[in-house]
Amino acid sequence: MAPELQTAPVAAGARAVAPLRALTACGWLAAADAARATVVSRSSAHEVSLVAAPDGRAAIVKQWPAGAPTGRDLRQELFVYRLGRTVPALAAVLPAAWHLDEGRQLLVLEAIAGGSAPPPHLADAGVADALGRALAAWHAATTETGLWPSPAMGILDMPAAPDVAMTGRALATRRLMQAIVEDARLAGVLRDARAAWRDRCLIHGDLRRENWFALPGESAPRVRVIDWELSGSGDPAWDLATVIVEAAIDGLRTTGVVGVGAAMSALPRLLRAYVAADGLLEPTHEAWRHLWTCAIARVLHVATEWTERQPGNDTSVVEPLVAQAVAWTGDIDRLAGEGSAWAAA
Questions:
Q1: CA 191 to each of CA 153, 154, 159, 162, 233: distance values in angstroms, whole numbers, following the listed order
Q2: pLDDT one-digit tens code per residue, 143-164
Q3: Per-residue pLDDT tens for 217-234?
Q4: Which string of DSSP letters, residue by residue, matches 152-211?
């Protein structure tokens, strides 16, 4: 899970100065107001700061720090915000971008709801439909866009190259990955998902509930999507599969059981809305089966990432996630048929 924003202002120093300097340089913050601005910061692979101006406005400053590990940066995300300037369906889900700087790996954005937007709930009125329409719109609008591949689907290559997948991982993660590769059913699903994968459009790649918001609108909720670092050309089924998995995980949060609850019950509405809005999901059993192979792959990905981030031997989350992957694998043809029936209803 992504680290939470700290709630205490950062003390004056290097961490606080960089975002304020960026905001004054791009004209968002007057130099005279910089001393009275509040900086709240979190750090993960990069630095993200929420800055509140004295007049109540709020901005997000996101920067890839000098000396950070290679292999990841903000190129994909910066490109998405530039692309949004010419693709209205994409612009509709993006926060306003006030400053883009590829050279400095710097991004200055509108803070959604002043940085205090609540997590979205798929089961809330209109939310599943709004997210389905938003996904369909930007997927369909970017089919002819030249993009580099999204790195989000790396787990699909794990059966073919387990040593590569395990390099640099914690011992518990390596053990889990090895168990997945040695399970003929799970490894087979990963191979099937990889074989059917088609780069067709811009995908977000990591559509966890931390990365999108549903804001009140005049007639329907307005969807906003952030954190596009893993975006790129990819299979639209991966974004849909990620939402399915997040709905399943929401059951663990709310009921203690993966794969049950209000969010799962909202999935038919999301998928119907996606198909009705001419999203890239064909009305065939094969297409819906591929969607569920991607969902199984995604839940295994979440399990490995959770193992990587949790110290010790806590399996309270990982075991139910893997069990859900096994259950979906055994039931995949029924799920594919049920999904196509959802869309047709």
A1: 12, 12, 7, 13, 20
A2: 988 888 999 899 999 999 999 9
A3: 888 999 999 999 999 999
A4: GGGGGGTTT-HHHHHTT--HHHHHHHHHHHH-HHHHHHHHHHHHH----EEE-S---GGG
Tokens matching residue 152: 């989000």
Q: By the 8 A CB rule, do 28 and 108 touch?
A: yes
pTM given for the model: 0.90
Distances (CA, A) of 340 to 122, 282, 337: 20, 9, 5
Cβ–Cβ under 8 Å, residues 226 and 120: no
d(CA 119, CA 342): 26
Q: Which has the closest alpha carbon to 305: 176, 119, 163?
A: 176
Q: Which domains are assigned to the chain? A: 14-115 (3.30.200.20), 127-344 (3.90.1200.10)
- DSSP code at position 29: S
Span 119-146, average pLDDT: 96
Beta strands at 47-52 and 38-43: parallel, antiparallel or unpaired: antiparallel
Closest CA to 329 of 191, 207, 204: 191
Is the CB of residue 322 less than 8 Å from the CB of residue 300? yes
| Phi, psi (deg, nearest 5) at residue 252 | -65, -40
How far lies 216's CA from each of 75, 213, 262, 270, 287, in Å?
31, 10, 20, 18, 33
pLDDT for position 13: 42
Output the CA–CA distances (angstroms, integers) from residue 63 to 13, 43, 85, 101, 129, in the order listed.
16, 10, 21, 9, 33
